[in-house]
Write a structure and sequence with these properties.
The chain is mainly beta and 204 residues long. Helix content is 3%, strand content 49%. It has a single domain, classed as Lipocalin, CATH 2.40.128. The protein is built from one helix and twelve strands. Strands 1, 2, 3, 4, 5, 6, 7, 8, 9, 10, 11 and 12 form a twelve-stranded antiparallel beta sheet that branches. It is globular.
Length: 204
């Protein structure tokens, strides 16, 4: 089972005040990486149950943000064993040769209010393309929530080849959705910045 650490640094007070709240403990039961595809025009949902994420985010300084997300493709789940066996095969994800998808952020900007936009490189099945993902940042009690979505063209990555390349059967565009929930770091943590890999959490 893969494990991951989320480092999320967020300034909560108005500009000019130095105090910041930092989040470093992901809540895996509340976090999710999912998707919506269309088959014969009908929306079909699924999710990936195992992923690693490392995110450093300060809303007051978006230019300093860093984010890396790695998804274990074999953790794909649409509730059907038959669909699973097809999707992990060579025509689709080819998980034996390409076990993970990886996103690395290259920039982030504030769109106003709770809205942000992250830009980065997505590598999937050996191909890399740029993606742009809008997301929102908000507080939920003492936790931080980052939630957003972005479109992905499966054929750009060679996913669904052969007869599955017919987009009238399976649409080319897939909506990828993400939700990360993180708890506040311990107040007595030195510098309130944990070392990479410290206290990792795993999604069941």
């Amino acid at each position: 089972m893969r494990r991951f650490t989320l480092l999320l640094c967020a300034t909560l007070l108005p500009a000019g005040q130095a105090l910041a709240t930092q989040f470093d403990r992901i809540l895996p039961a509340q976090s999710q990486v999912s998707f919506v595809s269309r088959q014969m025009g009908v929306p079909v949902q699924g999710e990936f149950r195992r992923f690693n994420a490392l995110i450093a985010f300060d809303p007051a300084r978006p230019d300093t943000a860093q984010a890396t997300l790695e998804v274990e493709l074999a953790s794909f789940d649409m509730g059907s064993r038959e669909v699973y066996d097809e999707v992990v095969s060579r025509n689709w994800f080819d998980v034996r040769q390409h076990p993970t998808a990886r996103f690395v952020a290259t920039g982030l900007r504030h769109l106003g209010g709770e809205r942000y936009e992250v830009r980065g490189q997505m590598t999937l099945k050996g191909r890399t393309r740029e993606v742009v993902a809008p997301f929102t940042y908000r507080l939920q009690g003492r936790n931080a929530v980052l939630e957003g979505a972005f479109p992905l063209k499966r054929l750009d990555y060679g996913i669904g080849t052969g007869p599955w390349g017919d987009t009238s059967i399976v649409a080319d565009e897939v909506q990828v959705r993400f939700r990360f929930v993180a708890a506040e770091a311990a107040a007595d943590a030195p510098g309130r910045t944990p070392a990479p890999g410290a206290r990792p959490a795993a999604k069941p």
